[in-house]
Amino acid sequence: MEDKELIAAAKKYREFSYSPYSKFKVGAAVLTKKGNVYGGCNVENSSFPMTNCAERTAIFKAVSEGEREFEAIALIADTPEPCSPCGACRQVMVEFKIPKIIMANMKGDVQVVTLEELMPYAFTEF
């Protein structure tokens, strides 16, 4: 699957965002090694710590379906620069060793980084 296809899937899931407080819609799509795509959006809560990001929603959906090996994740939001994942999402990406992170915005800007570039000093099982 090409990066632009994964970004398009993330963009589709962005439309499902439940963001009544921030009005900040985020979509994500994760590609597994089996070739399956799982999408997610951010889901807010009036108790802000209970909010779940799009990236974690997509990853957790995949994991809940038995997936454990991933190729890439794309995320998209209406930001000036390509949307970067938060620290919690970065750590979940480390946990599941997602090697390629595709960050995009609604203007069409894209930045692709490796997991090592995104989290050079991540917590790991070692």
Automatic annotation (TrEMBL):
One Pfam family named in its UniProt record: dCMP_cyt_deam_1
Enzyme class, first EC level, given as a word: hydrolase
Record-listed Zn(2+) binding positions: C53, C86, C89
Keywords (A to Z) from UniProt: Hydrolase, Metal-binding, Zinc
UniProt EC number: 3.5.4.5
Gene Ontology biological process terms in this record: nucleobase-containing small molecule metabolic process; pyrimidine-containing compound metabolic process
Domain of life from the UniProt record: Bacteria
Catalytic activity: cytidine + H2O + H(+) = uridine + NH4(+); 2'-deoxycytidine + H2O + H(+) = 2'-deoxyuridine + NH4(+)
GO CC annotations, alphabetized: cytosol
All residue ranges annotated as the CMP/dCMP-type deaminase domain in the record: 1-126
Active site: E55 (proton donor)
Listed cofactors: Zn(2+)
GO terms assigned for molecular function: cytidine deaminase activity; identical protein binding; zinc ion binding
Annotated PANTHER family: CYTIDINE DEAMINASE
Function summary: This enzyme scavenges exogenous and endogenous cytidine and 2'-deoxycytidine for UMP synthesis.
Family according to the record: Belongs to the cytidine and deoxycytidylate deaminase family.
Name the UniProt record assigns to this protein: Cytidine deaminase
Originating species: Selenomonas ruminantium
